[in-house]
Design a protein that fits this description.
Layout: H1 2-66
Length: 67
């Protein structure tokens, strides 16, 4: 009887541990995914700004070269 209670408690502990571990992994992966999305959005915005600035620079340079 004591062994059955011990094994039931051990089983419940293992189940709770695995549930907590699974939730932690899910939260970590969600945060990692959000970080990657934000990083890629920022990288894309930086590239867009850089290309716009480069285009403006080329336009000004061409205007001065043609004048």
């Amino acid at each position: 009887m004591f062994i059955d209670m011990y094994l039931d408690a051990e089983s419940m502990f293992i189940d709770m541990y695995l549930d907590a571990e699974s939730m932690f992994i899910d939260i970590y992966l969600d945060a990692e995914s959000m970080f990657i999305d934000m990083y890629l959005d920022a990288e894309s915005m930086f590239i867009d700004i850089n290309l716009d600035a480069e285009s403006i620079f080329i336009d000004i340079w061409m205007q001065r070269a043609c004048s």
